[in-house]
Design a protein that fits this description.
Chain lengths: 217, 217
DNA sequence: AGGATTATTTTGATATATCGAAAAATATTT
DNA sequence: AAATATTTTTCGATATATCAAAATAATCCT
């Protein structure tokens, strides 16, 4: 539908829209790694194409068409991430960058077939939901591990931080989506958690616990 | 390494180099679907990058670096074709266009892992050889079905024509890479061939036989 | 050999995507 | 409310990739 650059802008607006209703030029420039001037230029183009509503000096918002396109790109990105992680065994912290490229491939049949090949996954390897063909996202009740009480049985559902350092750390500890964790004790000293995963005992710092999304068993 | 446009030019030069040593501006324009003026422009760029040797008004030739890059792109294209056909069951005549996009993804780890996932295939679904990581192509002794004599036992190794009509026709007849064929008789009337594949008898027109590459059993 | 034909390059122009610097609008501070 | 700071837009410029039309070189033909 659009160029890779256009698609990246739509995706960025979509991502920032989750926090604020209206998205600022500066914030877009920041997460896209471009200059505010470039953002203004592209925003103008996308507004002319009716994918964004732009009120000069105020901010931008996705139109319905724009949101639909953004969700399609998110869908492609997350499906490719599942493929890279599950089928090709590419490490957790590498898959994002590769999916950034793959998400721009234009071939509806490819995505349909890929979806089927992967068994119609609902969540990507980071635990983020994968929009279906009409752009609908499945909701789940999740809590942060940091907010769980001793005695609760949980499973890792996703991460709130996508930094390479964090993901590599989780890899090393062999913590993945679906890994079961039981909260044993919270250390008063530094709020770190004592946990049991299967037969293995481990502790996680408060900083780690704040970024792990869990589902209750 | 280069932009998708640059990569397409290198691939086109590589493809045309198989027929003639030196490749003409006009021929490049034709298979790339662009104008001769555009070709001259791009050829200049690629010559400055030492990927092509260009003698104005004479033609172009790949340098060693250029050939290496071309082979990498061909490798990626053909590996993706195997994936699309074997894993996603996408039809023979659709895979080429999708692979045209996928071949430009820049991620060495992805290609290594994909190669392993596919079981290190040596030939793509059209029977064309897949260059290895150092750009080496496996050679096979193949003959055209049209040149085979009655009594010979053969297997389909590839096609010499990649047109959608032709590939769809083969699909309909359930003829694939690896399908065994025994030549029974060549009809003097129109050179069409009477064949046996397993238990099934079939005839193929001379035109079809001229485009089927076979290996001897 | 020389005129005609064909192929190729040059020239000037367009569209995308980008940015630095300057100008304009908005927000904040005193 | 005026001065200051921040954000956003406009303006001019650059790089890629493209092409039509004009100019130029090579080749073909008689």
């Amino acid at each position: 539908m659009g160029t890779p650059a256009e698609e990246n802008y739509l995706k960025a607006v979509y991502k920032l829209s989750e926090k604020d209703q209206s998205v600022s030029t500066n914030d877009l420039a920041q997460i896209l790694g471009t200059s505010p001037a470039s953002v203004t230029d592209m925003v103008k183009r996308l507004s002319e194409k009716k994918l964004l509503n732009h009120q000069p000096y105020k901010g931008v918002r996705l139109t319905n068409t724009g949101k639909k396109m953004a969700l399609e790109i998110v869908r492609k990105h997350r499906l490719w991430e599942v493929f890279l992680a599950e089928k090709l065994s590419i490490s957790w912290d590498s898959i994002h960058d590769i999916a950034e490229q793959l998400e721009h491939i234009q071939a509806p049949e490819l995505i349909q077939k890929l979806d089927a090949f992967l068994g119609f996954p609902r969540f990507d390897p980071h635990g983020d939901p994968i929009p279906d063909e009409s752009g609908v996202l499945l909701e789940r009740k999740t809590i942060l591990l940091g907010q769980a009480k001793p005695g609760t049985h949980l499973r890792i559902a996703g991460v709130l931080l996508h930094s390479s350092d964090f993901l590599t750390y989780l890899d090393k500890l062999n913590l993945k989506i679906g890994t079961p964790l039981e909260v044993i004790e919270i250390m008063p000293f530094d709020q770190s958690m004592l946990l049991i995963s299967g037969k293995r005992q481990l502790t996680l710092s408060a900083r780690v616990c704040e970024h792990l999304l869990m589902t209750e068993e």
